[in-house]
Amino acid sequence: MNEAATTREPTGMLVLRTLAMPKDTNPWGDVFGGWLLGQMDIAAGLMAGEVAQGRSATVSVHDVVFHSPVAVGHTICIYANLVKVGRSSMEIALEVWARDLVHLYEPERAFVAEGVFHYVAVDSEGRPRPVPDASEFLARP
């Protein structure tokens, strides 16, 4: 892992926790960036669905940065902050943290990735619809 594990703490709501398995990794035992990005989209989608109180769709992904590799056997925890809400849109910032709970127990987590996801609340026809009041979810400065 890296030194970032001791210099900061996760921010936001824990929305997803999962284990990196061998099928998710390259020949060197590190998870594919696409797998991690998919987990991030699932996490952002969970928050978007809760905020929108129903169906939502990914619109765009910005500023994704992979700070350090995640190895097979690492547990990842994804934290989400609702940054902004428009009439039908939501901007969700994610942080991905990891630690080894399988091979060599690590009490400290490492900050391994981050990104910003934009979602839109949609109705049953897939058309944008208003997001209900989301003040309880908005990140506080």
Write structural notes for this entry:
This protein has 141 residues and is mainly beta. The chain has a single domain, classed as Thiol Ester Dehydrase, Chain A. Helix content is 14%, strand content 38%. The chain is built from 1 helix and 5 strands; from the N terminus they run βαββββ. The chain has one helix spanning 33-52; strands at 13-19, 56-66, 74-85, 89-100, 110-121. The chain has a 5-stranded antiparallel sheet, covered by helices on one side. Strand 3 (74-85) and strand 4 (89-100) form a beta hairpin. It is elongated. The mean pLDDT is 91.
Task: Give a nutshell description of this structure.
The chain is mainly beta. It has one helix spanning 33-52, and strands spanning 13-19, 56-66, 74-85, 89-100, 110-121.
Relevant terms:
141 residues; mainly beta; Thiol Ester Dehydrase, Chain A; elongated
Mean pLDDT: 91
Radius of gyration: 16 Å
Estimate the helix proportion, in percent: 10-25%
Write down the domain tally.
1
Let me know the number of strands: 5
- Helical region count? 1
Which fold does the CATH topology refer to?
Thiol Ester Dehydrase, Chain A
Uncertain spans: none
How far apart are the termini? Answer: 29 Å
Q: Could you describe the largest sheet, including whether it forms a barrel?
A: 5 strands, antiparallel
Task: Give the CATH H-level superfamily.
Answer: Hotdog Thioesterase
Beta-strand percent range: 35-45%
What's the arrangement of strands in the largest beta sheet? 1-3-4-5-2
Which second-level CATH architecture applies? Roll
Shape: elongated
Structural class: mainly beta
CATH class: Alpha Beta
SSE order: EHEEEE
